[in-house]
Design brief:
The chain is mostly beta strands and about 270 residues long. The protein has a domain of about 110 residues. Helices cover about 0% and strands about 60% of the residues. It is built from one helix and 18 strands. It has an 18-stranded antiparallel β-barrel. It is globular, with a radius of gyration of 21 Å.
Amino acid sequence: MRVFTLIFLMPFIVHSQVKRNDLFDKQLKGQVKSVIQEQYAMFEDSDWIGKLNKDSMTWKLEYYFNKDGNLTKELSTTTAEGFDYERILKYEGQQLIYSSTRDSEKTKEKFYHNSEENIRAEYSIKNKDTIGVFLTYLDSNNFEIASVSKSLLEHSPYLDSTVFVWDMKGYLIKEIYFDNKNAKGDLSYEAKFDSYSRVLVAYMISNDGKHKGLEEHFDDHGNTLKKIRFNKKGEITEKIEFQLEIDKKGNWISRNVRIDGKWLVREERKIKYY
């Protein structure tokens, strides 16, 4: 299969000084070996944190990491459907060389890494037929700088691509999207982080002007305490708050989630370290 060339994207590339791995993406601190995360529905009562019903577990996620902080296995199950998906990954040193995913609909996705050009290719396979390909272009620190998605189905063809630009701290500052009709959607992010108050503010910049899109508050360990989203008029469209219990490494091991004033979700994590 032909690998798509994105030479026209090169002027947009900015290399981050932050080294990215799966622990970085999941905001985990320390040398984490595994995480088992369970999600429960909460029921409102007179107690402000709501009432937790242990029989109300809706979702379970399992993550397993090697000593380099890279994901080697991911397993998802739901109480409603049972098995959801499983993903297995293999590495040579720091380089991802193989990943295979199977889901409940028996669709398999195989993922290969081209180390010479730092390109990852993911193929969707159903009934032994390849139905789609997704290419990811990475910089030297494993940050995604571009992606291309292509359908191989004759009745639903498409070719989409996206360019990503990151700042030196690893924050996304710009995203440029191209669809199969050569339409261009240019959406910029101006992210500002106040280290004193531990608040990140992201401004959305488009043809309609600039407005605050997201305000995110963190604790001293980098865990999210609050997320507030705004529309173009400056009105709050969503407010998510987290009440956390933290372990000695600074990772949360339980959190209650309040969405728009209602406590709806509780999540618990069992974390093992090397």
